[in-house]
Specification:
By secondary structure, this protein is of the alpha+beta class. The chain is 30% helix and 14% strand. Helix 1 crosses helix 2.
């Protein structure tokens, strides 16, 4: 209770989650946003501007691990 969940996924997989009532928002990113270290850093900055205070990595691959390391929360 009192927790809002947003979901980050690659396009076009967001279509699967768009109507899930448990999610407040679905972020769809292009695959190119995970190609380079600088693009992952830019994505981390965009997410930090959204005001998140927690991340839970369901994928557990190197790219999402790096994304989590660039986030300051």
């Amino acid at each position: 209770q009192g927790i809002e969940v947003d979901f980050l996924t690659l396009k076009p997989f967001g279509e699967v989650f768009k109507f899930d009532k448990r999610l407040r928002k679905v972020f769809e990113v292009e695959k190119k946003e995970f190609k380079t270290l600088s693009s992952i850093m830019n994505l981390a900055k965009r997410l930090e501007n959204e005001g998140y205070d927690c991340i839970f990595d369901l994928h557990g691959v190197l790219k999402t691990f790096i994304l989590g390391k660039f986030l300051s929360f």
